[in-house]
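hey can u run this one w/ zinc ion bound, need the structure tokens asap thx
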Amino acid sequence: MARNKSILTEARQIERAVTLINLGARLQVLESETDLSYERLLRLYKEVSGKSPSKGQLPFSTDWFMTWQPNIHASLFLNIHEYLNKVAEMDEIDTVIKAYQLYQEQTKAQGLEDLLSVTRAWRLVKFVDNGMLTMTKCSKCGGHFVTHPHEIARHYVCGLCNPPARAGKGKAQGGIHMH
Ligand SMILES: [Zn+2]
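ok here u go:
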């Protein structure tokens, strides 16, 4: 997406960075998705969020997305993202931003905590882009869920249809549907 980035005006890049900071994105996301200098981004981050960015590595593993509740949240986000990708002509990062805002609206409407951070959402899209994760259709409910690419669809049952025994009766994920 370097081509798209280069034609963006600086004002647009700042606007995009501010939106990401407000959504709670890590500084590394801003570095990757704008052409603004590190110093500039650092200043912007402190101004907008009122604190210094957290240090340390971004999560690099796909494991988190495979655990039960995170998988449901990641799947909800990715369904929205795939939909926007099809119907809207936007730069890649703007699709992530819009999909994440819609994901937050959905979880809020259902009184759920937004378990998926915008940084993880951004990472998830990268994992899908490079083939480390994909979506597989649940053989019971027909919803599409985040899985490893080698999942056999015929046998795949999602976390909503087959919650872990300790999870109790569906309170935690409320009425999330992936159809
Ligand atoms: Zn299912």
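The mean pLDDT is 89. anyway lmk if its weird
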